Structures are given as C-alpha cells and as structure tokens.
Amino acid sequence: MTSAATYGSFPIPRGESRAKRGILTGLVAGYVALLPYQFEAAKGINFAAADIFLLVIVLLAAAQIKYVKPAWTIWHLGILLTFVMGSLVASVRFGNLTRYELVNKDAGLLLPLLSYAAITSAVTGWDDLRFILRVFTAGVVLENLMAVAAYMAAYFFGVTTPFARYGGLRLSGMLLDPNAYGGLLVATLVMCEGGSWGPAPLFKRVPLLFCRLTLALGILFTFSRSAWTGLVVAMLFACLIRPKVVARPVITVLIAAPCLILVMGQRFLPIVQQMSRRPDQIRGRFDLIRQALEAFSQYPFLGGGLGSFRLGAGEVAHNSAMWFLADFGIVGLAAWLGFIGWFFAKAWFAYRAAPLREKPLALALLLGHVSMFGVAMGIEAFYQRHWWVIFALIASSYSIALRTATRPDRETEGLAHARA
Known about the structure:
Blueprint: E1 4-7, E2 10-13, H1 14-20, H2 22-33, E3 38-42, E4 45-48, H3 51-60, H4 74-94, H5 99-106, H6 110-122, H7 126-157, E5 164-165, E6 170-171, H8 178-194, H9 205-222, H10 225-241, H11 243-264, H12 268-277, H13 279-298, H14 308-313, H15 320-353, H16 359-375, H17 385-406, H18 410-419
Antiparallel strand pairs: 1-2, 3-4, 5-6
C-alpha cells in the first residue's frame, strides 16, 4: 500500500509526488545556489543570476507550482495591498510613479513572491528542506571563499577586485553592497550553526568548522554594523533556546581572533577601528530616522506614498521599519510587522512540533529569520532574496510540521485496532 502525503488540498503518493516535482526541486536548488551573485545591469538596477532559474521555472515547471494553503496568509495579501495603496498615493501626490519605484519596488516584488511560491511547492518534506538548506549554505560558502581570498589579495598585494568597496576596505562579495552581503553571511552562519546538532545535522566536524571560519571572516571584513547587529541578536536569541549552539562558534572565534590579528599585521587593527566607528555615517543614519519620523507625522495613516521618502531625503531610509512608516504610514508598518511576525510564530511552531531529528532544521530557520530582522534595522532588507528564501522555508517547515502533527500514524492506528 502506497503511503500518501497531503499536499495543499490533494493527497499525493510520496514517491510519485517526488518524481513529478524533480524538475522544480532542481531548479529551486539552482536558484538558491546562485543567490550570492549579483551584477549591476544599469544605474540603480541590479541583475541577480539566480533570477534566470525563476524564468526557467515559469517556462518549464509552472504547472508544478501549487497553492500550499498553510504557507500563505492574509499578511501576504496585506503586503500586496500596501504597495498598491502606496503607489496610488504617490501617483496622486506627485502626478506619477517614478521609474525606480515602478521597476525596483512594485515589479520587483513579483520576483521574491515567485521564488516563495516555487520553494513552498518544491519543499514537501524534511529531506527536501535539508537538501535546499545544504545547497544554499554551500553556495554562499563557496562564493564567500572566493571573496575572502580576493580581499586578502587586495589587502596584502594591492590587487583591485570587484569583491570589495570603499577603497577595498569593505568586503561586498558579488552582492555589490557590504551591508547586504554581510546580512547574507550572517543568515547563512546562524542557520549553519543552528542546524548542525542532533542526529542529522546539516554539517559536522571539518565541513562545519570550515563554514564557521570562512563565514566569520567574511562577516568581519564587511565591517557592516547592521550585519553584526543581526548576528548578535540571533546569538542572544539562541542563548535563550539552546545555549550549546552559541558555545561552539564563540570558542572558535576566541581561539581564531589572535591568529587572525597575527596574520593580518599591525595595520589591521587601525582599519577595524576606523571602519567600525564611522561617526559621520552613524549621524547620517540617525538623521534619516528623524526625517522618516517627520514624514510620518505629516502623513500618519497611509504615509507619503511609495518613494516619497527617497525623493524627499535624497536616499533610501536604511531601516526597513522606518521606510514602511514613512512611505506607507501606520497601516503599512502594521502590515510589515504582521508579515514578519507571522513567520516568527510559524517558525516557532515548527521548532516545537518538529520531530527530534528535524528540530535543528526548524531552529536554523528561526535563527536565520531573527538575524535578518536585526539586519533590517540597519538596511532596507525587505527585498533581500535570501530573506525570502528563509520565509519560504519557514512556511514549508510549518506546513510539514502541521501535517505530520495532525496526520494519524497508520501503523500505530493499526496496532491499536488489532489490540482492541
């Protein structure tokens, strides 16, 4: 007798469903593997190599994208309506919607939503989730290995590389921005650490140590205070749930830090101090927060409209909450917080309800989400593709945990009938 798995509203045999979704799973794996690679196509417009796989999914595997009911919520609709309303408000206020907002914000929201739909359709079991997380981590670690090597070449030999910005002092990888790249590395590191315990860890021993050291180096070399904030927030949260997850990386860093200083030489510490302080930039960020609050005070309910803060301040808010508050008002901020909070609640449910063997996966996603929330306080992280991957995997883990928690165990049920 073939066992069945409930997928959306339809029971599908497990073996058959895995065979049918083989193409989609492979394309999703390709998507997450290429997430660290981004190129500047034009001024203000970046091209992500991973989006090629989204196009292929639409062309070859669109029929395999399904509506998985537990993975979607009213908050998804709330986010969409927020952008629709914000676009209408901006059009009324300014007479039109700028090309930047139309392409990067409105149309740009379709890509992460498509990735979300594809991932939640492809990941239907814990093994699928483990596979995607491993591919994602491996992809980030390999790209970061090249980036760190390039940074070392620039530091010691003055070699100019596209992996660093600000005169070669801050590592940006292939994401073009040190803060965005730091957020990617932090999310990857905390998920790698959170998932590497129990009977079926994501990585163990030498591979885990290699991931930990190279990712930690990348995070340091970005000199991104936003990324460091996200890392600290995630680690403090992990201390409350599973302190042993934090102990290993902390011990490793304490041992490796003196070795790093010895290798980098005497001029490295002044660079660390210079890049960590940046008082002008700190004042600038607080000025942006003040301007966002002033914009909110003028249009508190629906905000000034999509793009209003960027046009008024001359740059983006560098804080996701302040951006939503200024452009979309209290209604938009409530939608964003509800959206973020829903994933936190479902990640927590998945962690509590998952089998012991799979709890590390659920914890990894929970820590990844918490770290990105911390990063979002220093940059506009809402459109970061890796955060949407975490969203989708959390929704998938919740769907799997919900299904396994409510589905009766057929063998146990049969034994109960036999004893009766």
